[in-house]
Amino acid sequence: MRLSFRPLSCSWRRGGPAAALALAALTLAPGPTPLAPVNSDGGRCARLTHLRVPGAEHQRAACLEELTTAGTVTSGHTDPADWAGLTPQGLAVPEGVPGVQIDGYFPDTSTTNTNNGWDHDAQFVIRLPDRWNGGLVVAGTPGNREQYANDRAIADWVLSRGYAYAATDKGNTGPAFYRDGRKPGDAIAEWNDRLTQLTRAARATVARHYHRPPSRTLVTGMSNGGYLVRWQLENHPGLYDGGVDWEGTLWRSDGPTLLNVLPEALRNYPVFATGGEGAGAARRALHAAGFPAGSEFLWPYHHKFYWDLTQRVYREELDPGFDGPTEAGTPFCALGTPACDADYDYAARPDEVRRAVDRIALTGRIGKPLITLHGTLDVLLPITQDSDLYARMVRQAGRSPLHRYYRIEGGTHTDALVDTYPGRLRPLTPCHRAAFTTLETWLRPGHRPPSSHTVPLPVEADAATLLNTCPLEGPGDAAPKAEARTTPRPRGGRLIDTATGAVELTGVSTAR
Questions:
Q1: Can you list the alpha helix ranges (DSSP code H) found in 161-220?
Q2: Would 33 disulfide with which of 73, 134, 331, 459, CB 3.0-4.6 Å?
Q3: Phi, psi at residue 197, to the nearest 5°?
Q4: pLDDT tens per residue, range 238-293
């Protein structure tokens, strides 16, 4: 796992439904230029040998007639198992995007990623379309999937819009990711540094390929990938112009996290499921823990495929001492079983556990524009225990002018469940696309995004409409508004919201 200079730092990969679905500032930079071919096919293919990804230990480049999954599935330049279960079946597949794909890996010692036959982690993919709009999108993967996990949900769409695209496997993959590293928190800490590493390398590769640097670099991702977006904009805002956080995981040492919420589900759901005398109290306990009323139809599936596994492997990563030499506890253990995760009490654990969480914790101190979207029926990362709290953290850090938060009514953690429960859930993929285009507009001088609000589920919308649209405008967004412009200043400077006159100390540099 470890890099030569410093440690670089849900959804499983294969094998049935559980493997497919379980673990998911206003620097107003110039917008991407209009699509324009950068060279002929001959020139593009002839220069493959000159493409070098800085820091890569190994790479291979291919000249492809199609960079989207409309072509990469048959050409072998993606792995459908990586992205299975993350998008609705009816999601359209764009096509007509020729270009160059570079697959490779950075130096690493762990070997959980078997893509490309390499048995090597820290794998990445970079895609360079012939008709480039001047921008770059980088992403980390959800859960513990590999570098192609975002190909259907994110890459296809941004490539069709002319963006270059890069993604990383985050440096370790699979349900035993916690084995990577020497101390608690190492594996997750590596995720953050791997995305930083890839962003720098991808920017340099784009500049070399197109003979000019990207005019805009945007970061996005879902679930654990959304956590990476938050962390990057808090810790390396100078690398990016903005980001879209799709239901990012919230880690903080002094408040609710997965390790507080999931044990409540493991304790109370079996009692609720019996329908006996204690079922009503168990239901109320689940509601109090953040699992919303009206989400009960999702509980059996999540109990079977998500809650238990997720709790055990992330607890093992951050608190391996809880179950001694046992790896990741005992699956579906009953209350009172020795070292049972259903009995896990984060608040009662030693301070060293909170120190491990602190290594990966978020602060809310974002330094560039961030849009967060989260479904109100998410019962893996309940919205009241995650993005609601993160929005509050951003506000308390004085960064509200840089943040917009859209709560998507009827959305859940993975869009494949929309097909399982038709008419009861709203897909989040079109909402992510709406958020992305909203960010693009926000980065243009004189534009302001819709205010943060809950996006209602249309009463009579059909499935096709929900699959293709997700208007983010709220009730008060129709009338023209004064632009809210924040002027970034160097470390120790101030953020000034010219619409309200509010002034906050930045404490971070937003220099690019």
A1: 186-210
A2: 134
A3: -60, -45
A4: 999 999 999 999 999 888 899 999 999 999 999 999 999 999 999 999 999 999 99
